[in-house]
Amino acid sequence: MTAATSQATFPATTDVLVVGAGPTGLALATSLCRLGADVTLVDLGTEIRTDSRAAGVQPRTLQDLDRLDAAGPLIAKGLKGTGFRVANRDGTLLELPYAGLDTPYPFLLLVPQSETEQVLRDALTAAGGRIWSGYRLLELHQEFDAVATLVAGPDGLVHSVRARYVAGCDGLHSGVRGQAGIEFAGQRRPQEYALADVRMTETSPTPRVTFTFSPDGMLLQSPLPDGIVRVVASVPDATGALDRAGVQDLIDRRCGPGDRATVAEIVRSTPYTVTSRLAATFAKGRVFLAGDAAHVHSPAGGQGMNTGIQDAVHLAGLLAQVLRPDDPGDPGDPADPADPADPSILARYDAERRPNAAALLAFTGQLTAVAELSDPEQMRLRDQVLARSRDVPGLPQFFARRLAQLDVPAAGWPAS
Asked: Which of 52, 190, 261, 408 could form a disulfide with 113 if both were Cys (CB 3.0 to 4.6 A apart)?
């Protein structure tokens, strides 16, 4: 969608000021628009990032995106992955199939995050929303009946915006979280990874994500549309983006013969670091956090962006119950019936989503710890347990359901 033009008037009041137009902010703004709320979505950036990390949309997330009429268009842009495969240099240890899962979407949608963002931008436009690009939140002050904020525009002008609620969807270094004074504690030592989108001389006919364990570290290979394969590897002391020879060396050293494809071309390559952190609360007064502003963690299992989108749809449903968009009134008017009569409705957001995020951090941390074992005896036992679990009835499906996030309750929306 096009950014807000200089002729448009930046709003002085709004039901919800959403800060950050990544997948989480877009999902929240689109959901609120569809539910009838007045939303102002601001983002410092002016275009979609192409170096995004997320490359898989889980079935549980597709169920939420279906509410936004975004699931179908996104599926059309991706590959229907069959699930996950866990291997070592000797071959397959465990298959985690998505076929047969109790969901309308029994597959892992393999699609770059940039495509997910574009589909959500289109959904936002269709819902009557827009992005105010190049706008930065400077300050917020909570009052009894509203949140007073200052927002700087791309022309340097500072705007005063009075919002009934503010939602921080502005990532790891969230300005909303900082302004609200919410602690973001967690792991001090970052985990370092190399990410490369490459083209191979040949690719597997089966679209699935393969995790390979080796004494040298973990390596992931995930097919994407247009013949691209995403390679992610744990790389201690990463110093920069890898070239073709560097990616090939990682594949050759960490993968077994059946998984050692030849890298023909580097499409993009970047190092990145990840820390595991969890906000002390997802809600403070009239300020809420969602996505990476509330929780960050290991990329193991493709859980992060998915959880952020689910945060957003969940929060939108709760906000819609208290905003009464059929009578929006004057934002910030304490006498207006649109102000919540029952604070416990919004209290559910932190009560329901923070425990889910805490469990997610523990889960991805465990996956990472298992993947990064380096002691030969511990590695042997890990691989032995994984191989034997193939023959335990229902166990592979249990793990697949967990990765698909189908054990996360669906958000409730007001009846239309």
From this structure: 52
Cα–Cα distance between 325 and 38 in angstroms, integer?
A: 8
d(CA 185, CA 106): 35
Taking residues 205-215, report their average pLDDT.
91
Q: What is the per-residue pLDDT across 109-122, written as a single tens digit (0 to 9) for each?
A: 999 999 999 999 99
Instruction: Give 333-383 as a DSSP string.
Output: -TTSTTS-S-THHHHHHHHHHHHHHHHHHHHHHHHHHHHT---HHHHHHHH
Enter the tokens of residue 3. Answer: 């950014």
The tokens for 199 are 């083209």
Report long-range pairs for 138-146 (Cβ below 8 Å, ≥24 apart): 139/179, 140/166, 140/176, 140/179, 140/180, 140/287, 142/180, 142/284, 142/285, 142/286, 142/287, 143/332, 144/334, 145/332, 145/333, 145/334, 145/339, 146/286, 146/331, 146/332
d(CA 6, CA 190): 41
Domain assignments of the chain as residue spans, ordered by start: 13-55+112-188+276-372, 80-109+190-274+377-409
Q: Please, are residues 349 and 281 in contact by the beta-carbon 8 Å criterion?
A: no
Q: Rounded CA gap, 355 and 96, in Å?
A: 25
13-55+112-188+276-372 topology per CATH: FAD/NAD(P)-binding domain (3.50.50)
Residue 170 CA to residue 315 CA, distance in Å, equals 15
| Domain 80-109+190-274+377-409: assigned CATH number | 3.30.9.10
Q: What is the mean pLDDT of the chain?
A: 89
Which tens digit of pLDDT belongs to each residue from 69-80?
A: 999 999 999 999
